[in-house]
Amino acid sequence: SQTIHQWPATLVQPVGSPLSLECTVEGTSNPNLYWYRQAAGRGLQLLFYSVGIGQISSEVPQNLSASRPQDRQFILSSKKLLLSDSGFYLCAWSVHPDNNEQFFGPGTRLTVL
Amino acid sequence: AQTVTQSQPEMSVQEAETVTLSCTYDTSESDYYLFWYKQPPSRQMILVIRQEAYKQQNATENRFSVNFQKAAKSFSLKISDSQLGDAAMYFCAYRSAYRDDKIIFGKGTRLHILP
Fold it and tell me: Which residue of A12, A55, A103, B71 has the lowest C-beta tally within 10 Å?
């Protein structure tokens, strides 16, 4: 069966510090991968998606970046965090090319102080 | 570009009663998929129900059913016999049948279940 992992589960970082959130998927190959942010009391905002290794599409210009070094690994990064980067970050995957449904990870709660 | 609108930020329903969550969408495409996702306090996103646009029959999953009105671009979720465990954020979502990239989510409706 397929599983998706995210870590860390929670993170508290000072403004200006770097960020690296990792997402890995098991039990499937060549998935589409997604990073979402959910700010407090708000809906899901798609940040990045990837249809293959090294292929990243950015939805919202910001100080975040994403990389996909391996087929089932998706990393969200920042060189310098802003206060506005606080939120709940969700990674998701879908079957390529079906993409009928997205399966979500447990999420990472990021607090920038 | 496609958009998904959930006009009810919050709703409440008495336990064991029925509640309907609204969702409208805008698209010029004729074939697509629609979803309702549930996000309980644990924050884990869970797929509740899925509808293919080419199917006229409304999807049902146990106590969850949808009212899909393609011409009106409406996709409401009905929860029957509401239970305390149904308390969550509910997101309506759209995915094109022509593009293999992303799903578009509404902003969500927070559902409270009153005991």
Answer: B71
